[in-house]
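Action item from last meeting closed. Structure (356 res):
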């Protein structure tokens, strides 16, 4: 069973995640999932930012569906508040995935939007936390991160055609990271943390947001929300918080361990599902209900996935999010009031586009 672990001992668990957007064809004809259109105001990079740096920062932002270099840079700062080493490995994974994608001449448009590197970012986050728990030494973690991040663009390229019109979400990250973690078994011998305090339970939604990047920090979670709201979309930040709070509440209702809830483990997958609905659907009352209902369903799926993966001493990562977000996406057009946005970006822009 996946528990929350403290940073200095085997109690240091930060669970994870992205996703892509509506299906289209790249210039080379290969199937891919594109990003929301790039911002042209607050989220735009300064004119002097090199294209590679711009693309890599967008890759960090794409973990939260934000096609913005400013958002990516802010998120790295938020991660550094939890653990500078985490931010370093997130940067390393992003850079390696981007470089390999460029060297292999994979879809250049997707690479420029950060879609070739967000899975690498998550690989770096996950490996920086879980591999040391499995006894991997200080030289082994960066090596594993480089190999895993390098593999992620190719895994994504293979998955693309099989996904049809459905986004890939974080499937490539899960495939790469779980292959390593099922072998490493980082949760062997893990002990349960102390019961949660009232303050820890109250801050669970913020920790859930931070757990998207495998961080266990309410401060980091609050910073992530502030960055998304300031550089990309206040509504996206709200969707993250509502999803995490919903998942935490479901965990409490099903009798989950209070420490698991307090450390955000029941919140991060639901937060991503809620955000995915907010980004990909035209805002309506029905889509708002789907965001909350999808978050609740994701929390239930997390409980099941945690039990299965825990039996192999491995974390469930973002498998529950990928499963439920796919089902939510496929509901578009099948129920009144549920329609995909023409150009997925954020609730604010999706609404403006629908009103034109």
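Sequence:
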């Amino acid at each position: 069973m996946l528990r929350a672990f403290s940073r200095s001992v085997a109690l240091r668990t930060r669970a994870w995640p992205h996703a892509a957007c509506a299906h289209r064809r790249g210039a080379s004809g290969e199937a891919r999932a594109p990003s929301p259109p790039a911002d042209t105001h607050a989220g735009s990079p300064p004119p002097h930012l090199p294209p590679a740096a711009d693309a890599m920062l967008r890759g960090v932002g794409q973990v939260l569906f934000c096609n913005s270099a400013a958002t990516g840079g802010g998120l790295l700062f938020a991660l550094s508040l939890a653990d500078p080493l985490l931010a370093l490995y997130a940067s390393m994974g992003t850079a390696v995935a981007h470089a390999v994608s460029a060297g292999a001449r994979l879809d250049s448009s997707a690479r420029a939007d950060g879609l070739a590197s967000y899975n690498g970012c998550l690989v770096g986050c996950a490996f920086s936390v879980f591999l040391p728990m499995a006894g991997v030494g200080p030289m082994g973690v960066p090596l594993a991160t480089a190999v895993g991040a390098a593999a992620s663009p190719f895994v994504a390229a293979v998955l693309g055609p099989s996904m049809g019109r459905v986004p890939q979400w974080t499937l490539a990250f899960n495939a790469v990271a779980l292959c390593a973690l099922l072998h490493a078994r980082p949760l062997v011998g893990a002990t349960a943390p102390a019961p949660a305090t009232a303050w820890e339970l109250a801050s669970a939604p913020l920790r859930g947001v931070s757990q998207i990047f495998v961080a266990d920090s309410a401060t980091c979670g609050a910073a992530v929300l502030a960055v998304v709201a300031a550089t990309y979309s206040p509504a996206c930040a709200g969707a993250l918080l509502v999803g995490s709070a919903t998942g935490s509440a479901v965990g409490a209702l099903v009798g989950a361990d209070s420490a698991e809830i307090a450390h955000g483990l029941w919140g991060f997958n639901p937060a991503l599902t809620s955000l995915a609905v907010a980004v990909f659907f035209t805002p309506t009352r029905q889509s708002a209900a789907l965001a909350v209902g999808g978050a609740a369903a994701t929390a239930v799926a997390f409980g099941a996935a945690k039990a299965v993966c825990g039996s192999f001493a491995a974390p469930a990562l973002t498998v529950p999010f990928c499963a439920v977000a796919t089902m939510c996406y496929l509901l578009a057009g099948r129920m009144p009031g549920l329609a995909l946005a023409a150009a997925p970006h954020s609730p604010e822009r999706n609404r403006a586009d629908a009103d034109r």
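Note appended to the action item: Confidence is low (pLDDT under 50) at residues 1-35, 40-45.
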